[in-house]
Automatic annotation (TrEMBL):
Residues 246-266 are annotated as: Disordered. This is SURF1-like protein. Residues 256-266 have a biased composition (Pro residues). It is found in: Cell membrane; Membrane.
Amino acid sequence: MYRFLLSRQWVILTLIALVLIPTMVELGFWQFHRHEKRVAQNALIAGNLRAEPVPVTALTSPGHTVPRADYWRRVTATGTFDTAHEVVVRRRTSASDKVGVHVLTPLLLKDGRAVLVNRGWIPAAPNQMAFPEVPPAPRGEVTVTGRLKADETTSASGIKDLRGLPPRQIMLISSGQQAKALGRQVLGGYIEQTSPEPAAETPELIPEPDHDSIGAHMAYAVQWWLFAAGVPVGWVILVRREKRDREEAAAAPRAPQAPEPAPSAP
């Protein structure tokens, strides 16, 4: 009755179905894990943004790698801006997706150490070899509040650390590299400034990271699992249809054959 399943066509179709089912299940779990990761990251960001600010020296030190648990923690630092060693970080976008640079200014602390402060976004110079016009940093002692971020790396950001750039222009924010340029100890990571707000419209402060949307990963996971469940259902439907068609073809009466013409007389 089901001997047709041993035909070459049906063996190939069955093997394809057997491969598709676990593949789709695995793709569903891949999207589900991405959903879980996004939810956990949103909770981490929201919790760290709600926390009371703490002195930056309580969370990091020279050579320290900021752990993910401390990303976006609100911190404060008091000191004076060292504009002589100010640099810009190339190929950064504003909140409206305009390409420009970030202004990175060392803040010299009272103990002689420094912490890097990302003061925000400004347009790049018309000539990429030139240093852009940077709004001046506040003079005198200032207390900066912001979000703690880890040093940037190519593996984490996907940005190549290009060499041979014009003076005072960099691709990645690295406390280790800036410590060599400053000739003093620099706290690991950097501060993404949120206050004080600039007197002018620029630098444009970096907005909070999105921690409300969870994306469509869960919906994609459910879709893949539904596809996986649909494969055996579709296979059964095709088998039953093939069986019915074969039974109908076998039960159909054969058309009578036309009689052979009589041979003609010589």
